[in-house]
Amino acid sequence: MSDAERRRDAVARLLRGKKLGTQEALLAALASQGFQATQATLSRDLARLGARRVSRPDGHFYELAAAPASGLAALRGLVVGVEANRTLVVIRTAVGAATVVAQAIDDARPAGILGTIAGDDTIFVAPEGDVAPARLKARLEEILAAEGAEAG
């Protein structure tokens, strides 16, 4: 596990265990556990974890967004099609949904994916190592269909 992953795990544990209302308070709590981070790094960690600042009757604080029962289940209806050429896979989505779909794929970390690049309604998926784009296309179609079927 990388230092960044350990730090994000610590952030998640802190948010589950305490009501922290500011990034400064969260940075201090991280420091008390031996993690040093800048405010910019913490902001990226919070975004990656899906944390948000909420207002409740007992105050304002950060909390982790509730995860869907299945990580990619939320993609049902957003993916229009999946295509491949000899170098990469292209996922077409509903207009405005590519970033959300790409983030869900990146978070799920399916085997064989090096990374994604998202536009407004198109995602480029780079295969990892020697993974054939046609094979990755089939795998993505399987993942998206299987996850969508579970949600319905």
Low-confidence residue ranges: 146-152
Roughly what is the average pLDDT, rounded to an integer?
84
- Helical stretch count? 5
CATH class of the largest domain: Alpha Beta
Beta fraction: 15-25%
Structural domain count: 2
Radius of gyration computed on alpha carbons:
18 Å
Provide the spatial order of strands within the biggest beta sheet: 3-4-6-5
Distance between the termini: 34 Å
Q: Would you tell me the structural class of the helices and strands?
A: alpha+beta
Q: How many strands appear in the DSSP assignment?
A: 6
Helix-strand pattern: HHHEEEEHEEH
Q: Which word captures the global form?
A: elongated
Topology:
Blueprint: H1 3-17, H2 23-32, H3 39-49, E1 51-56, E2 59-64, E3 79-84, E4 89-93, H4 98-108, E5 113-118, E6 122-127, H5 133-151
Antiparallel strand pairs: 1-2, 3-4, 4-6, 5-6
Molecular structure report:
This protein has 152 residues and is α+β, with helices and mostly antiparallel strands. The chain has 2 domains: 3-64, Arc Repressor Mutant, subunit A (Orthogonal Bundle); 73-151, Gyrase A, domain 2 (2-Layer Sandwich). It is 43% helix and 23% strand. It contains 5 helices and 6 strands. It has helices at residues 3-17, 23-32, 39-49, 98-108, 133-151; strands spanning 51-56, 59-64, 79-84, 89-93, 113-118, 122-127. The strands form 2 sheets. Strands 3-4-6-5 form a 4-stranded antiparallel beta sheet, with helices on one face. The protein has a two-stranded antiparallel sheet with strand order 1-2. A hairpin with a 3-residue loop joins strand 5 (113-118) and strand 6 (122-127). The chain is elongated and about 50 Å long.
